[in-house]
Amino acid sequence: MAETEVKKNIKSEITSLLLVILFALSIRTFVIELFFVPTPSMQATILRNDYIFSTKYSYGFSRYSIPFSPDLFKGRVFASVPERGDIIIMRPPHDMTTRYIKRLIGLPGEKIEIKKDVTYINDIPVERVKVGEYFDETNQEYVKYKETFPNGLSFYTYKLKELDGIAETGHSDFGPYIVPKDHFFFMGDNRDQSGDSRYQLGFVSFENLIAKAQFVFLSTKEIFWDEKLGILDQLARFWTWLSSVRFDRLFKSLYDIDK
């Protein structure tokens, strides 16, 4: 094969690879993205080591929609305001190197207050009914509640049966505060083990929202990829990881609580 022909083939292969990478980045930036959840703050709606399928276009796009968040522009384009009860992936204002996932509770201009674990929106209590108990995979016991927003969306929240020093105190009361313009108030469904708008998260700017969480794509008791381990050690634990898949959670909607 002539040298020019070889160079032409190499150039073609490189061009094809770049196009594939560009296509993948475009899908991740503008359409869908998998989000790994390493914490229990949304338990048991979302469990530790869940991979969440999220839609990037739901609220429009900001610089935080783009990998590495380059400072290309301010605000949002093609913006669409989220609805109360949405589970949202965001950049926390206090730590721009990570991402959080929480449930939207308060909209701009609303008065938010929590009194004895009951959430009040503009002085109207969110309906809250105890429905039973929940035990996590470590056998930690929680009290399970069903809450219903004025828009009809129902979801479950969880309170530790006994704190036993494993959670911050003071989660039961908050405010009152007015949500600032173009900001939102968030809480985790695991009400005693969530660093949310009651604490370090604070009110989150509309610009910081990244995506709307939709359903569980994959869920495992053992972490899929442990960054502390080498390649050979990762391969050696393959069957351990595979046996830990939570098959009952695959493709589970985050909003259909009766399934």
How large is the radius of gyration? 21 Å
Please name the CATH topology of the largest domain: Umud Fragment, subunit A
CATH superfamily of the largest domain: Umud Fragment, subunit A
Q: Can you name the CATH architecture of the largest domain? A: Ribbon
Any idea of the CATH class of the largest domain?
A: Mainly Beta
Question: Overview of this structure, please?
Answer:
- By secondary structure, this protein is α+β, with helices and mostly antiparallel strands.
- The protein folds into two domains: 1-30; 31-249, Umud Fragment, subunit A, CATH 2.10.109.10.
- Helices cover 15% and strands 31% of the residues.
- The protein contains three helices and 14 strands.
- The chain has a seven-stranded antiparallel beta sheet with strand order 1-2-14-3-4-12-13. The protein has a four-stranded antiparallel beta sheet with strand order 7-6-5-11, with no helix packed on it.
- A hairpin with a 5-residue loop joins strand 9 and strand 10 (154-160).
- The longest helix has 28 residues, at 3-30.
- The radius of gyration is 21 Å and the shape is globular.
